[in-house]
Write a structure and sequence with these properties.
Elements (H helix, E strand, L loop, with lengths): L3 E5 L7 H9 L4 E4 L8 E5 L2 E5 L12 E4 L4 E2 L1 H13 L8 E4 L3 E2 L2 H14 L11 H10 L5 H4 L2 H21 L7 H15 L3 E2 L1 H10 L4 E4 L23 H6 L10 E7 L2 E3 L10 H9 L13 E3 L1 E2 H11 L3 E5 L9 E10 L2 E3 L6 H6 L1 E8 L16 H14 L2 E6 L7 E3 L1
Parallel strand pairs: 1-10, 1-11, 2-5, 2-10, 5-7, 6-8, 7-9, 11-15, 14-16, 15-19
Antiparallel strand pairs: 3-4, 12-13, 16-17, 16-18, 19-20
Bound molecules: guanosine-5'-diphosphate, 6-O-phosphoryl inosine monophosphate and magnesium ion.
Length: 422
């Protein structure tokens, strides 16, 4: 398999975890390059469900190496919780996982500040996952963060951490919050550090040696294009670069070593959290929620749902340089009589074919919708493109051609087996 970046082409939760698991069969190494445990990637294998937050979804396949890259932010306590949970489910995690010594560490004050800032924003809140992601990346950019490499040096860690706790306790106090107990948290983090020490290394060198040895890499994107800090619906975004470029900075693998970009998108659109969402539709939200679908895998919040938005996915294809598309959740539309697809936005009298970068304008955009006939049949059993109802094939061809790249994977159910390769 060529070195492949896999990105979410919409607002996250496109089914990246499922497609990563499918593609890992052909990969040697799976690497996360950004985000943290705000991600929730679901993989279902033979009916058994796994939810990954920090650990790459590739961990579910034996003999594949997984890397948490330098661009990721790691909550060590949560990483251990995830690791333990996966082991209980029968997953082997030993020398098949390594963690970058340059990845920044998420601390309790990041999580509490995330909550406080959201609360203070009132109805202007972002709707974050409250995992402390923004404040942790904030410290990284401010150049005051602590990294995984610091954790394994107790003396330097204690000094740097004490200064951070003192500073953050003043801020917490201003928000009316209880201060952090330095000794208690230090103890918990140093204990986590002892457990994680065997995993922590220079992952850049590891990846470069692997490339030299001819091993191939699958870059597992977290979140989605419109949650990208630069290209998303700012400020309703996450705090990392979720688009293809982030895979290089977040791992230290240079751009000329990347051979292919795959964009994952749902056959419709979802978004969790606040912010503009032009094709949002109450009817389709109600329908999907009634089917027990589209509840967040990290926070359990119901996702907002809407029609497929080709203005957004076309722009996403441009930013990421998407070569191939994986369309998931086709089966979610199995019983819809008439399916709508957004082909442009109306902003007053203007017709737009790219999303405006000004959020006030995006909020005012009205989708221009075309209608396609539904196939009104189950697609869940299809294992080849030919086995799909003709109207489902037409729908897929239409959304792929509106987006641009070629269609290479279709998913018709959450299970690993329910995947079609074109
Ligand atoms: P990710 O964050 O992009 O990995 O996506 P999530 O796992 O958060 O959300 C995707 C949801 O859709 C999960 O519940 C998956 O199990 C599920 N899923 C993925 N592909 C399909 C599909 O083709 N059909 C159905 N029914 N569910 C799917
Ligand atoms: P995966 O990898 C969907 C959203 C949050 C919020 C915004 C900022 O599973 O696709 P943050 O906690 O990152 O500061 O929240 O980003 N968000 C996600 N939405 N899927 C995700 O990850 C997300 N990670 C963050 O809901 O709107
Ligand atoms: Mg998710």
């Amino acid at each position: 398999m060529p070195n492949t970046i896999l990105v979410g082409a919409q607002w996250g939760d496109e089914g990246k975890g499922k497609i990563i698991d499918f593609l890992t069969e052909e990969a040697d190494i799976v690497v996360r390059s950004q985000g943290g445990n705000n991600a929730g990637h679901t993989v279902i294998i033979g009916g058994k469900k796994f939810t990954l937050h920090l650990i790459p979804s590739g961990i579910l396949r034996a003999r594949k190496a997984c890397v948490i890259g330098n661009g990721v932010v790691v909550d060590p306590i949560d990483l251990i919780r995830e690791l333990t949970g996966l082991r209980k489910q029968g997953v082997t995690i030993a020398d098949n996982l390594i963690v970058s010594d340059c990845a920044h560490v998420v601390f309790p004050y990041h999580r509490i500040l995330d909550e406080c800032r959201e609360r203070a924003k009132g109805d202007k809140k972002i709707g974050t996952t409250k995992r402390g992601i923004g404040p942790c990346y904030g410290d990284k950019v401010e150049r005051t963060g602590l990294r995984m490499g610091d954790l394994v040096h107790p003396k330097t860690f204690s000094e740097k951490f004490q200064a951070k706790v003192e500073e953050n306790n003043k801020i917490l106090e201003a928000f009316g919050e209880k201060p952090i107990d330095f000794l208690e948290v230090k103890k918990a983090y140093l204990s986590a550090a002892r457990k994680l020490a065997p995993f922590i290394t220079n992952t850049v060198v590891y990846l470069h040696e692997a490339i030299k040895a001819g091993r191939n890499i699958l870059f597992e994107g977290a979140q989605g294009t419109f949650l990208d800090l630069d290209h998303g619906t700012y400020p309703y975004v996450t705090s990392s670069n979720t688009t293809a470029g982030g895979a290089c900075t977040g791992t230290g693998v240079p751009p000329h070593r990347i051979d292919r970009v795959i964009g994952v998108m749902k056959a419709y659109t979802t978004r969790v959290g606040e912010g503009p969402f032009p094709t949002e539709n109450q009817e389709i939200s109600d329908m999907l929620h009634a089917m027990g679908r589209e509840f967040g895998s990290t926070t359990g919040r119901p996702r907002r749902c809407g029609w497929f938005d080709s203005v957004a996915t076309r722009y996403s294809s441009m930013i990421n340089g998407i070569d191939e598309l994986a369309v998931t959740n086709l089966d979610g539309l199995d019983h819809v009589e008439k399916i709508k697809v957004c082909v442009a936005y109306k902003l007053g009298t203007k017709t737009l074919t790219v999303p405006p970068s000004d959020m006030r304008e995006l909020k005012r955009c009205v989708p221009v919708l075309i209608e396609l006939p539904g196939w009104k049949a189950s697609t869940a059993q299809a294992r080849s493109f030919r086995e799909l109802p003709p109207k489902a094939r037409n729908y897929l061809k239409k959304i792929a051609s509106l987006t641009g790249p070629k269609l290479s994977i279709v998913s018709v159910g959450a299970d690993r087996e329910q995947t079609i390769r074109l």
